[in-house]
Amino acid sequence: MNSPDVQTLLQQGRLDEAERLARQSLQSQPGDIDSLNALGLIALRRGQLPRAQQLLESAIESNPNHALSRHYLGRVHDAAGNVDGALAAHGAAIKLAPGMFIIRLHYAIALERAGQQDQAALQYFRASNDAQAQGRWTSAETTAPGLRPMVEHAVRMVRQTRKATFANLLEPLRQKFGADSLDRVERALRIYFREEAPVYPDPRQQPTFFYVPDVPPAAYLDRALFPWIERLEAQTFAIRQELLQLLPSTAGRERVFTTEAIEKENLRGLQSPPSWNGYYFYRHGERRADNCAACPVTASTLDILPLSHVRDHGPEVLFSVFTAGTHLLPHRGVTNTRLVGHLPLLVPPDCALKVGGEVHEWREGRAVIFDDTYEHEAWNRSERTRVVLIFDIWNPHLTEAERAALEMIVPAMGDFRKASEAA
């Protein structure tokens, strides 16, 4: 039977044996980084902080680029109440090993102790996301017992910080529209933070990201809700003429799915490889000026639509091109706050849309509006190209105050995520 190594002895709390083994290793290999780190940790556990600091500083001198040595030194400074020393050590460690989420967790704690609450929240969020991406910290079972209090604190701290941010953003709207004007949005935020369970009146509706309760559900929306729909349809011929001028070329078109892996996961082909690409007028909310200029009738027609403008998120507006035989597999959208519209422009036989189990066959010039948080799919089983104009619009059941709130809080969610990724 093999003898346990130093790390195993440390994990078992057998400090005397671990120390003896580490000292033996250090005698045979002077300056050995693992032995110095182990002896530093043993001294830390015994409360011998000056000794621990000395050993870990020796380890860093031996190898300045060893992240764990700097992290352990940070923990010594934590124990000594040396906030500046802890910040410096943990900060240096995370620069050397940005993927080590336990180091990032301790760095966040040091930032919080230093009074840098916003930066701490970003680091807590990044640490949690990195851990969960590796299947850790998703539950009590996937979190080491010694880390659970820190991880639970991280979750609470991030939630409190983000809730305070959203409350500050929404306060001017409450003042403008009334105290109860944002009740549904506030409930949506409680659902988002998992403080309230969502209740779906139609169980077929399952948003993947953000759900506003008490918004009437429907797989397909009644045309009477959209007073502009006939004006849109009246432009079908002119819009199609602009499309036909583009179609001989693929210039300006982009893959809808940004990677080949995502495309393979979501598309199938009957005979030849499937293809779904788009000529975008808006993508992730960014207006494509050149494409709009090339299709002036289409661009001006879009101005009559209540497009769901949300910075960095929407709308998505495009000539959606399915090549022959392409099948978009069942999937769901992110939120019931916006709907998806299709204006069919070129529709050969055997092409259809299926939302919530209900099949809709496109008719050229006849718009259809649906809620994509219902499971939906689309196919082109013909031997020709199918093109529809896709556009994202606000759900008409939302109020002006609610739309204004969403225009602020959804970008704020994205800003926080991006800041954490850059932290």
List the helices and strands and how they pair.
Elements: H1 6-11, H2 15-28, H3 33-45, H4 49-62, H5 67-80, H6 83-96, H7 101-113, H8 117-133, H9 148-177, H10 183-192, H11 229-234, H12 236-246, E1 253-255, H13 260-266, E2 267-269, E3 276-283, E4 286-287, H14 289-294, H15 296-302, E5 317-322, E6 326-331, E7 338-346, E8 351-355, E9 358-360, E10 368-370, E11 376-380, E12 386-394, H16 400-422
Antiparallel strand pairs: 1-3, 2-6, 3-4, 3-5, 5-12, 6-11, 7-10, 7-12, 8-9, 8-11
Helix pairs in contact: 2-3, 3-4, 3-5, 4-5, 5-6, 5-7, 6-7, 7-8, 8-9, 8-16, 9-16
Question: How would you sum up this structure, described in words?
Answer:
TPR repeats lie at residues 33-66. GO terms for molecular function: dioxygenase activity. InterPro entries: Asp/Arg/Pro-Hydrxlase, Asp/Asn_beta-hydroxylase, IPNS-like_sf, TPR-like_helical_dom_sf, TPR_rpt. Keywords: Dioxygenase, Oxidoreductase, TPR repeat. With 423 residues, the chain is of the alpha+beta class. Among the domains are: 6-97, Serine Threonine Protein Phosphatase 5, Tetratricopeptide repeat; 223-398, Jelly Rolls, CATH 2.60.120. It is built from 16 helices and twelve strands. Strands 1, 3, 4, 5, 7, 10 and 12 form a seven-stranded antiparallel sheet that branches. A five-stranded antiparallel sheet has the order 2-6-11-8-9. Strand 3 and strand 4 (286-287) form a beta hairpin. Helix 2 (15-28) packs antiparallel against helix 3 (33-45), helix 3 packs antiparallel against helix 4 (49-62) and helix 4 (49-62) runs antiparallel to helix 5 (67-80). The radius of gyration is 28 Å and the shape is elongated.
